[in-house]
Amino acid sequence: MATQSNLAHQDAPKPGRRDFLYIAAGAVGAVGVAGVTWPLINQLNPDASVLALASIEFDLSNIQEGESVTIKWRGLPVFVRHRTAAEIAEAKAVPMSELKDPATDEQRTKPGHEQWLIMIANCTHLGCIPVGQSGDYDGWACPCHGSQFDTAGRIRKGPAPTNLVLPPYEFVTDTLVQIG
Amino acid sequence: MIKTKSIIGALLVSILFAAAPAMAQEGHATPEIKKEPWSFAGPFGTYDRNQLQRGFQVFKEVCSSCHSARLMAFRNLSEPGGPEFTEGQVKALAAEYEITDPDAEGGKRPGIAADRWPSPFTNDQEARDANGGALPPDFSVLAKARGTTQPFPWWILNYFTAYSEGGPDYIHALLNGYVDPPPEGAEVPEGKHYNTYFPGHALGMAPPLSDGAITYEEGESGSVPLTVDQYSRDVASFMMWMAEPHLVSRKEAGFQVIAFLVLFAGLMYLVKRKLWSRVEH
Amino acid sequence: MAHESSYVPGNVVEKWIDDRLPIIRWSKEHLMDYPTPKNLNYWWTFGAILAFMLGVQIVTGVILAMHYTPHVSLAFDSVEHIRRDVNGGRIIQAVHATGASMFFAAVYIHMFRGLYFGSYKAPREILWILGVLLFVLMVTTAFMGYVLPWGQMSFWAATVITNILGAIPVLGTPILELLRGGFAVDNATLNRFFSLHYLLPFIIAAVVALHIWALHVPGNSNPIGVEVKSSRETVPFHPYYTMKDLFAIIVFCIPFAWFVFFAPDILGHPDNYIMANSQVTPAHIVPEWYFLPFYAILRAIDFNILFIDSRLGGVIFFAGAILVLFFVPWLDTSKVRSGTFRPVFKWFYWLFVANFVMLAYLGAAAADGTVLGLPVATFSKLCTAYYFFYFLIVLPLLGRFETPRPLPTSITESVLAKHKAPAAAQPAAASTSH
Questions:
Q1: pLDDT score recorded for residue A2
Q2: What are A100-117's pLDDT values in tens digits?
Q3: Could you tell me which chain B residue has the CA closest to the CA of C110?
Q4: In C167-231, which ranges are continuous DSSP H helix?
Q5: pLDDT tens figures, C51-75
Q6: A6-10, B81-85, C163-167, C377-381: segment of lowest average pLDDT
Q7: Domain for residue A3, yes or no?
Q8: CB pairs below 8 Å between A and C: how many?
Q9: Are residues A75 and A126 in the same domain?
Q10: A-chain residues within 8 Å CB-CB of C232?
Q11: Are residues A113 and A25 part of one domain?
Q12: From B79's CA, which of A48, B162, C29, C225 has a CA 20 to 30 Å away?
């Protein structure tokens, strides 16, 4: 570092101690920089008020058979469909070979709660919200680019590559579901 | 040498400067408010969880019927460093309250932990009408929106003791400051109440607490007296937590940061001395 | 200081860059090799501390702006949202708010250092003028920033301070409405203050670049005020002053951290935790401590001067108190630069410092109170008078009548003398020996 000729060198410092001192100071400085940087980045993460709504509870008891509601979860629309027996039967009857993204009806629902279909309502193509109970498969049809989904929300026709996405959820009781 | 002198001078200057805002409040007519021994005072202070739970009970059963606390969420009540109710308790508590929600059927729904504390009145005007024209202030940050003053030169010490409990001191004094009947010569308008510590002395709020009015929940009964003094300490502590919910973690971080800075400063001093030992300066 | 560049590109990439944009050469010359007098004391570290504080304020400010909402009905709650919900928000917000105070503490020390050691004298007049300009920009930025939390003090500070412009004859009211974007301080005012508060720090950074440029042309002044005579009297900026300044910055951070972590609200005012209300003025409105001396001058003029009413008079003295600083290089007639060698000047200087602190004290005192047995109004007038007396009478005349102590002929001579005399008496006093 400092080998300028204009310095009045009095004695050459012992290399061992000098180096240790500089390395120690540099290391502590690096810890300090890291310690300051992390909170400055972490503040970008979802804040406490957002996280508090990351998991919501939803009461299913008011939804009659054959009805759907759209609820909001983490800012996304979520379909909650109380399927009829006919819809369930129709979904179960589809052979796997006909599916672009094969999944059984059991995989699309929770055991013992097969009447409930809960899916994120954004089309897996480019994110539009499909219209319910329409199209050739009695499920959902996307108005934007013509994707069609069946009564288990599986892609049957059109440009969407995969089935409608299922959010993580579980049944707290028979009529109370916790999403997220 | 001039250096020593000027360093002392600069220190004095900075102390006086830093202290100047406190001087502004000198000359108030209200009597001096005593500093109380709060558990959360000073660099080492932390909240007393049981006290916050008791204070919450006072707030819930008495204060919250008139005062809002719009910035406090139910979930805060179970966060670390606060009253630390269990999440189950908070969920059950929130469900007791009706929340106005335009998306809900009928515009109302039961509360959840993420909701903020519902206000007792729909707007300020309704709150005024129900309280003889006086607006009960929101509690969210009230404990930091009030302060006390100390005479010269004692306030200078506040900067070294990190005194930040002026709000709770004032709230405690106010709740214990009612005088009925008012002292001779004091004129109190109809519907107002004489309070020693309220600026102007005519306070719209009737004495909200009385000895024995609240029976603390199981576990707390018997451990503290059921007096106005105790209630007011508990609720003032709770209000301080409500205004400054991250006080404990903030101070913990402070010790780490200052310890780090002292270590780093020491090392940098050695580095600097080592470097400069080669230069006559 | 003109000097040959010692930079030699180390490899082909550096050579390629150097031929097109000699930024490494420039950095080496100005940030590393820059010859700095070797006898600077710790008062000279405040320049680096200020640069550091500007960085702190910009970084924390950009972050706060990500979470803040500049709207009258949301601003107050959004600041509380930062304190309560944002990860680490309480600390970041406290760093920015207390940072303003620390910034001003450092800038006052920096300015008083310049005034004592005559750093403004030829050939450094432009350096000083840019510094005063920076101070004016800082005051403006801090004032607008203080409005953003939209508490009671924010609102009433905005009202009272913008009203200062209303004192301007004829044009006052139109200017006032133009500035506020309305007939009173309201949403439009808050929004534009937010915009300008975000903009001004970058202008400050640009003027800081000019300030440093103007410093690097003549080179640093130094405590004895005798110019550098040979390269033996300087050391390269890096590592000597980078490490010394870094040490000073870290020490400066200790009280800073004390306030941030243990008393984040002690430098503010409780009333600012009450949301702005245009119908109720707080019982005592007081500016932040760093504006108090100038606020006291504004308030001291409570009488009409000929055809000038007291309000306009106050504004003239208030503005004059800052404007006079621009002229200090020409007001001070002394040939001797450093106050160390001016025995009479020292008395006036320290009285000026005490007077400035007294003005701060008076600025915070209730207008109808008394301080040391004197009514605040009278005391403020006396202190205001001395403030101007110092600049307009003492500095111009003292240079003509004062006999300075003998100056050392060079930095080298002064350093040698210092090492001979006290070094034997107190060899361990390293901290006070440079």
A1: 40
A2: 999 999 999 999 898 999
A3: B10
A4: 172-180, 187-216
A5: 999 999 999 999 999 999 999 999 9
A6: A6-10
A7: no
A8: 44
A9: yes
A10: 6, 8
A11: no
A12: B162
Question: Is residue A176 predicted with pLDDT exceeding 50?
Answer: yes
Token pair 């299913």: residue:
A60
User: Using the beta-carbon criterion (under 8 Å), do B279 and C430 form an inter-chain contact?
Assistant: no
- Supply the range of the domain harboring residue A165: 51-179
- 3-state SS assignment for residue C102: helix
Residue with tokens 């009030």: B146
Give pLDDT, residue B28: 38
In tens, the pLDDT along B97-106 reads: 999 988 887 8
Q: Could you tell me which of B47, A33, B168, B164 has the C-alpha nearest to residue C259?
A: B164
For residue A1, tell me if it sits in a domain: no
Residues of A in contact with B279 (CB under 8 A): 7-8
A71 in a structural domain: yes
The length of chain C, given as a count of residues? 434
User: What is the rounded CA–CA span in Å between residue B91 and residue B129?
Assistant: 32
Regarding whether A35 and A64 lie in a shared domain, the answer is no
**Number of domains within chain A:** 2
Name the DSSP letter for residue C431: G
Q: A148 and A121 in one domain?
A: yes
Please answer yes or no on whether A6 and C86 come within 8 Å at the CB atom: no
User: Does residue A23 share a domain with residue A100?
Assistant: no
A10 CB within 8 Å of a chain C CB: no
Q: Are residues A67 and A145 in the same domain?
A: yes
Which residues of chain C does B276 touch, with a Cβ-Cβ cutoff of 8 Å?
A: 240, 244, 434
CA distance B204 to A12: 78
CATH 1.10.645.10 is right for the domain spanning B28-72+116-245: no
Q: Is A113 a catalytic residue?
A: no
Does one domain contain both A69 and A130?
A: yes
Q: What are the structural domains, with CATH classification, of chain C? A: 23-281 (1.20.810.10), 286-416 (no CATH)
A18 confidence band (pLDDT: 50, 70, 90): low
ipTM: 0.91
Give the one of A6, A43, A50 whose C-beta lies nearest to C92's C-beta: A43
Task: Test A47 with C235 for CB contact under 8 angstroms.
Answer: no
Q: Which residue ranges of chain C lie beneath pLDDT 70?
A: 1-4, 421-434
Together in a domain, A78 and A166: yes
Q: Which residues contact B145 (CB under 8 A, 6 or more apart)?
A: B137, B167, B243, C270, C271, C273, C274
Nearest to C376 by CA among C290, C295, C289, C270: C295
Q: What is the mean pLDDT of residues B125-138?
A: 92
> Which residue in A has a C-alpha nearest to residue C231's C-alpha?
A6
